[in-house]
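ugh ok so i messed up the first submission bc i forgot one of the chains. this is the corrected input, ALL of the components this time, i swear. 434 residues overall. if the numbers dont match what u have on ur side tell me asap before i send this to the collaborators (the ones from the other lab, u know who)
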Amino acid sequence: MKKRKLNIGVTGLNAIDSPGPGVSVIRALREATSFDVCIIGLSYESLEPGIYMHDIVDRTYSIPYPTAGIDTLLARLEYIQEKEKLDVIIPNFDAELYPFIKLEPKLKAMGIHMFLPTMHQFEERHKVNLNDFGKKYGISVPRSKVLYDLNTVHSLPSEFSFPMLVKGKFYDASIAYSIEQVKSYFNKISAKWGLPIIIQEFIHGTEFNVTGLGDGKGNTIGAVPMRKQYITDKGKAWGGITISDEKMLDMTRKFLRNTKWRGGFELELMKNKDGELYLLEINPRLPAWIYLAVGVGQNIPEALVNLAMGEKVTPFTTYAVGKMFIRYSWDMIVDREEFEQISIYGEL
Amino acid sequence: MKLRKNVAVSEAGLLFNPVTGESFTVNPIGVEILNLIRDENNPEQISNAILDKYSTDMATFEKDYYDFIGILYHHNLLETNEETKA
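and heres the new structure output, hopefully the right one now
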């Protein structure tokens, strides 16, 4: 039987040392059994490697940064839609989710489906609200404090012991061992990502991640936990292994049941030496290591697309434990004309 | 003393704890001891099995054996006495 073909727009095509999830998401979609795909890459920079991976991405269009405003993004998407007739868009960056959530009804009217958290869910899980989130849903989180002013850092030693984490509102985190380091990271991170800065209690332990998909009604469609085995200096997993930890899966199901989370997600967890789990962050999108979930039997991006298209999806109940992913980098040789095409015309 | 039931031990000596994601390597005698533990042999039976097979003395074996058991407990690969009783 011939499968239906879906045109899917995907962002996050960058593959630096903190890689975007786009290429992994596309690999998953290309292995989908319930549909065929034409992949339209949506890029922010001309050097995002996914643009030039023609066996991964069929065509690419540049789109404006979120700072350009929602109307500018909408105008660009209207242009792309005229040419490509997109069925689905999967945004893969935290920073672009706000405009895409805002635009969801308008894009739906244009025929573009998405499966994103609601604005309430998006805001509630934000790092700046993590304390309240933990209290509301009965999930252990490290103590944190939101800072808007560098002058307030002097009160920190009375509330937190060193080391402490200094985090940006979207990305970046550094471990500070002194007030001088807190100030330095405050300036560095706020210059890049803006205010506020979040100070978080440092939990000693082992890092784990869970990726999954919630159907928006409290049900778990998929969930795969992973232990980071090789961590880059940016704290990103460059290698990992699937594990079977019921406590971790229970926490994931509780998170989805209580929040009625809609869409893909990644939970960042820390387990201390007493085996207690702390939720450090909720990333409201699929992670860069999502292909591991596909490799162990849960094609979460495929399920996400089917939910976006209003299809009924059967939850995944199992996955292979002890499977690893090992990331590598690969130098592509690219003609200057291709770079010129995407840089000058915004299309390739 | 029991090896946690979900801990996988390969013939080549790779131990994998699926709950924590940790893996370890042990030498061939380590594998033999782990298999003896898995088969629910007590320390005396394990000692006899190893001393029958290898030319070592009891004192040397016991020192190495209890070091090894300590490491297994440290990495949470053996059930605690409370867990075994439960």
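quick check: Residues 8-85 of chain B form a domain with the Arc Repressor Mutant, subunit A fold (CATH 1.10.10). that seems consistent at least. The helical segments of chain B are 28-38, 43-53, 58-74, 81-85.
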